[in-house]
Amino acid sequence: MLKISFIAHDRKKDEMINFVTAYEHVFKDHQLYSTGTTGQRIMEATKLKIHRYMSGPLGGDQQIGAMVAQNDMDLIIFLRDPLMAQPHEPDITALLRLCDVQGIPLATNIATAEILVKALDRGDFAWRELVHKYKPGIQDGEIK
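Predicted structure:
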């Protein structure tokens, strides 16, 4: 079971809802996280249970970023609006940087999201299980 986050800027929320609905059968077997409104809208449109953090501008991106910094997130689908300035752009940049530092797969558009979800469905994310198994302080899957 992997940890997957969904984040979508306002003008990308409908696209996110449609995407998650189309792949609900893939996401149902994983732990799901999201920023506030995006998560609420996904839950209203699907049967998925999502742990919701605050809205992005109120710190939700940073809350997800904290999980990434601990290498405790496996995949992020972040549908960004590249044509609209965001008041919390430094938070967004920090989250993207953390994904690069920790090697967390990150989709910032629907095309990349589709490729990653198809890989997830095929089982191509098994390497993330090894990341968790061999984290410092964890032996045989248990915290020591």
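Summary: The two ends are 21 Å apart (CA to CA).
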